[in-house]
Amino acid sequence: MKTKNPELAKIFTDCAKQAKEQTNICMYPGCTAKAINSHIMQKNGILSSLADDKHLWESAVDHFKAEYIGFKRKGINKIYTFLGFCNTHDTSIFQKIESKDEIDFTDYHSCLLFALRTACNEYRIKEVLIKQQKCILDNPNTISNGMLEVSIEQSKIGIQDLSFLIDSMWNDLQNNTESFVFEYKEIELFELCLNSIYTYDTSQEIEDHLIKFGRDMERTSEIFISLFPYREKSILMMGYHKDDKLKVKSFVNLFFKENEKRLKRRLSSLITFNCETWVCSNNLYKNKFEGLDSEFFKTMLFSSKNGNERKTFNVNIFSNNFKNEFRYFVKRNIT
Questions:
Q1: Contacts 24+ apart (CB under 8 A), 233-236
Q2: Model confidence at 100, in pLDDT bands (50, 70, 90)?
Q3: Which pTM does this prediction carry?
């Protein structure tokens, strides 16, 4: 169904394009060169193993539709990219995990590089979003109801939190220090690639802190989550800053110590409700997600109002009957 307000949709779309084009400086400290389209996860060996037809599927925004979040097919050279680093730094910094040799997931430096790309992508998303929303507010045909202003302030806070993490990463790379904890495990192959940051503190906890103390949290606790194919298996990797260890360690351990059934439910809740940065193969899309655009849109809206993002829902994306089960879950619990 098309949007009822195509004029506003055009403003949103034009501002998004403009904001992205204006946010294109290399994110390496001190570099002022123009950024190229950096892949969030390496194209050769990982994304290419999913793209049997040189295409993958991702969640994408189309403001000209009433339900403006849906799945879109895109070529491997353009999908899962962001304007992150210039060609020189994109090549030199990540060489250790881009090479054709075996990746050592017990090596701290290698794990840090995966997390760095994830963090920089999230940072750039917020930069672009702020510029897009300011552009929308500056348009004379836009009437503000205060929501965009709130979103801009939230993105600015998010950038501050990410800056702490990214600065720690650059310091580790330059001084051979270790500011983060990483865990990984192999699971059965699942044709999906996810690289996201999950905020441990729930929306309700953040709001309660603001009400109690009259100010935002000094910093939310972020968890890096990656799930990607590697040598006929999928690698699950999670990490967090050592300053957050007391708060998040027990939660992260659940993903590595619980049985397979519970792990699949936890991952399913993350993918369907909390993490937006992922792509999947054509085969997985056809079997799991085709025809579920409306359901995923509704879960996205639900997640933004849920208040308890750590809740695990009764969905299993690994199930052979996921499509019907997910439709039933959304119909019963969300719509």
A1: 233/186, 233/187, 233/188, 233/189, 234/186, 234/187, 234/188, 234/189, 234/190, 234/192, 235/105, 235/184, 235/185, 235/186, 236/184, 236/185, 236/186, 236/187, 236/267
A2: low
A3: 0.93
